Amino acid sequence: MDDASILDQARSYVKQLQERVKKLEQDVELKNICSNNNGTSTDIFPEVKARVSKMEVLITIHCEKQNGVMVKILTQLEKLRLSVKSSSVLQFGKSTFGITIVAQMGDGYNITVDDLVKTLQTAI
């Protein structure tokens, strides 16, 4: 191998490692958000996913059962200029909720999907 090839491979490997570190840091941050008062992890709760199609957002949430969780979610969506078109809340097991929301983007909506997910995770 020539020196240029070795440097290209090394550069590629370092880039892969940096991406892996970034992903692990995000996972640690999420675990910190999901920690309960005892400092132990509550699995992966809340799990929030979002998808965008044109001017609509599909949001799925799996979280611990708690009073007022929908109010918290709907309040955040309103602040983000998302109007709820439909929603469903299903009890999943004895202590968790499965929540699905379809929302319409309003004027002034300008947040990324990742930021939307982080905002809802923090609110819950």
From TrEMBL:
Annotated coiled-coil segments of the chain: 7-34
InterPro entries membership: bHLH-TF_ACT-like_plant (IPR054502), bHLH_transcription_regulator (IPR052610)
Where is the Plant bHLH transcription factor ACT-like domain positioned along the sequence? 51-124
Q: Which UniProt keywords apply?
A: Coiled coil, Nucleus
One Pfam family name is bHLH-TF_ACT-like_plant
**Main localization (coarse):** nucleus
One GO BP on record is:
regulation of primary metabolic process
Q: Which GO terms describe its cellular component?
A: nucleus
Its recorded name reads Plant bHLH transcription factor ACT-like domain-containing protein
